[in-house]
Amino acid sequence: KKEAPPSLNRSGRKMEMCRITKDNARLLRQIQKVQPVYSHKKWEEHYQKSGRHLKNCCAYPVITRMSRGSSAPSVMMQIASDTAGVPGPIPGSGAPSSVQSPVKGGQSTSAAPEEEDRRFVLKEGLRIGETYYLLEMSTDGRTLNVSAYDGESKTSLELVIKEKVHRQLYREHNGDYAQIAALLRVDGSRLILDSP
Predict the structure, then answer these.
(1) How far apart are alpha carbons 167 and 165 in whole angstroms?
(2) What 3-state class would DSSP assign to 129?
(3) Is the Cβ–Cβ distance between 148 and 128 less than 8 Å?
C-alpha cells in the first residue's frame, strides 16, 4: 500500500483547533464568574406576600384542593354484614329512597353511627348554584354523609346517601368523590344528588 502524502493544511487546522479551545475556556470562565440573577429567598418572600394578599381580597375562605398523594385515599372500608340502623328518608319529604332530607342549622335527625369510625374523604369549597359552600364528605364504609355549610347565611345542609347508592356512585366515578360532589344541587332548603 501507498502511504497518503502528509497534509499541507495540518498546521492550519491545529492552530484553528487551539483557538477554538481557548475561546471555549474563556467563555466557560466568564459564565462561571457571573452571579445568579434569581434569588430563591426573594421568590419565597414573594410567595408569602401573594398568599397574604389572596387571603385579604377573598370573599370566602381560601381552600386549595389537596393532591391525591397527600389526601386520604378514596378507598371504601370493610363493612359489617349488618346494615341495620342506617337512617332512611323522612316520610313525606319527597326525597328519593336513597337519601335523607337535609338538616338545617346543625339539628340532629337520629342516633348517629360511631363517630370514630367516620373518615373524611373530601373537604373542599364548592359553588352549588349561586352559593359557595364548604363541603365535607365522610363515610363509615357504608353510608356517605355530605355536609354543605353556607358561611353567609350560617346554615348547614346535610345529606345521607345509603350504602347501595354510595357503592354505585363510587364505582361509576372510580372512587373520585370530587366528581360525586359535582352532582350535588340545592332545591329550596334541601341538598340533593342529581342522578348522572
Answers:
(1) 5
(2) coil
(3) yes
Q: The C-alpha cell of 27 is what?
A: 467563555
Please state the φ and ψ torsions of residue 115, each to the nearest 5 degrees: -65, -30
H or E element in which residue 73 lies: none
**Residue 99 CB burial class (10 angstroms; 0-12, 13-18, ≥19):** buried
Question: What is the mean pLDDT of each successive set of 10 residues along the chain, which is 196 residues long?
Answer: 77 94 96 86 91 79 56 49 43 41 42 63 88 89 88 87 88 88 88 78
d(CA 40, CA 51): 17
Look at the pTM and tell me if it is higher than 0.70: no
Q: Determine the pLDDT at residue 61.
A: 65
Rounded to 10 degrees, the C-alpha dihedral 187/152/55/126 comes to: -10
